[in-house]
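Fold these two proteins, one after the other.
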Amino acid sequence: MATPTRSALRAALLGAGLMLATQAMAQQQKITVAWYGGNWGDAFRACVADPYTKATGVTVVPEVGTSTTTLAKLQQQKNAPTIDVAWMDGGISELAAQAGVLDTLDPAAIPNLKNVIDQGVYRNGDAAYAVSTGYYSLGITYNTKEVPQAPTSWKDLWKPEYAGAVAVPSPANSSGVPFVFFLARVWAIDPSNLAPLYAKLATLDTALFFDSSGAASNAYQSGEAIIGAHFNVGAWDLIDKGLPIGFAVPKEGAWATDARLHLVKGAPNAAAARKFIDTALTPDAAACLATRLYLGPAVKDVQVSKDVARKLPWGAEGSVKNLSLFDWNLINSRRAEVTDAWNRQVVRKR
């Protein structure tokens, strides 16, 4: 018969073995997270993925792409998803919910949901399907050597001195379709009949219609574009690198949206995925994203430096209430129409 000492030793060894096995399993476990490229992906890794892996031992494998690319993948993989968590922008987020590729965010499994402002939790009825990780805006970015005076109006993009050097988003970019409706406001065009706006856009002599934020940043960095639309995130990244770039909010305002996290329906690693989302909703993660990307935090009571605060989409003293946000359901109901009209009346008539 084993002595009590031997029994205790055996139990201790067994417990240690189970602990090591659990740790090894955690180290072997991976989750796949869809996020954007460039400085966005770098920030998501530094602010969320690395702290998550450090705390859990679970490796994060990025699936890099734009929001529209990610949605297409989720639809293709609907019956057997390989992605666990997905970052997608406002607008594409609603389309993903309609496509039935998202799972519900359960506050019991993601307790840090309580840290998020009401506007930052997106619901179908009582069920949350997305949560904001921060807001950003689309303003005018310009080369300070070529454009020494900060532009004051979106109409400045049509000035003849900028011909062939303007950048604006295409409908393939998540900001492209809402940007069309935003420009309708700028030019006082009835959104129920956008034909006059398409005619106006067809006269805009552009360097490119960009499909991704990275393409826009590259164009401004290379000098291919000297003025146009860009996100505050991308513009300030270039400015911080010492490039001769400025960012302006014109008198007509700046359009804004947010980057959201989603749990994929049927995610192969759902429990670990929920923990990842929970990690992203801490004040530390939100402050890190604000510092690295100048995302306006959706998490409550986040503290940032004065220099960071002035670069947020709402400025040093503002909040989400100061942003110009669109009704995504209305925009999405006309997305196909706008994309088709853009291709026929803007691109082909250039």
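Now the second one:
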Amino acid sequence: MIRKILFKASRNWKAKLISLFVAVFFYINLQNSKILIKTISVPVEYPKLTGNLSYNKNPEKTIPVRVEGLKDVVNYYSQFMKAVVDPEDVQIGVTEVPIKKIVGVPSGVKVTKLKKTVPVEIESRGLKVVPIEPSFEGNPPANFEKLTQILSPAKITVSGKPYELEKITKIVLPEISLTDKREPFAKTVRIPDLPKGISVLGSRDVTVNVNIIPLSYKTGEQTAAGIPIVCSGLDGRLEAELSEEQAAIRYFSVKPIRSAQILTGIVAQVPCNYIYDPVKNKIIPELQPQIAKVRIIKNKDLKGIEVLQINPEKIEIRYKVKEGTPSPGENVDPGEEGSGLEEWSTNPSS
């Protein structure tokens, strides 16, 4: 029985061997046809910089790599691959940073980096707070005048190289037209483009509130708006943000009086009595915001007028520690209060 089987297996053995070789050849070619080798560009992910550090120039966005694996797998997963820069390898100055890792690579796929480093330039940038200055064109109609303007914000923080920041002393806004303006108005103006290398931190929009008043003399009950609200007794190490920056009053005058006299002879004050504790490094008291009553301070020339109403009567005040706060023990001006002014509030007994 066994001899018959061996005899049949040995018949035409050469043809059978050739057939086996052909089958193996076609099988290998079939498997190789599923393998894909191609070069692609993968994005480079850089670490986010903290503090006053920034990338001086746009670093390279991609690097080339060679990918080898099953065709379908390579074509699908290539879109998810990226090169990652290790934060520990990033330093100030110009350096060649190594690409240590390619992420998003599935098992069974081989990736070879064709470029192993990328040039990175990092510089230290400074910050500076500069005032914003409005500019105007034209004039209001006859018998009207522009008395005051309030900017929000009045200052802005810019970033750049220290020697470039020294050249920036203020930012002048584009001109605002006063032609045909007969009443107070507000206009939002965008900060113009700054010199190359200088950038603005935060919003570039500034709201300018302009107070236009009549020149005529009036008696009786009247209103006056656009009175700036100021902090009284603010700790020099703190900055105060007011929920409202202007107040309006309703008043009565027996004698003829110009609106300009009201706006130049009256101050709206709120008590800013929070303090900064340098030992505990915190603002005291901790509860914010502070609710403060608005008080109207009149100069001696306006003793004859009676303030009937203040709007708003109260505002919210939020505090933050001023940048560059002096070290403990350093003398700080706590702020000044007006002199020669008479105080008035909605509760005279307070």
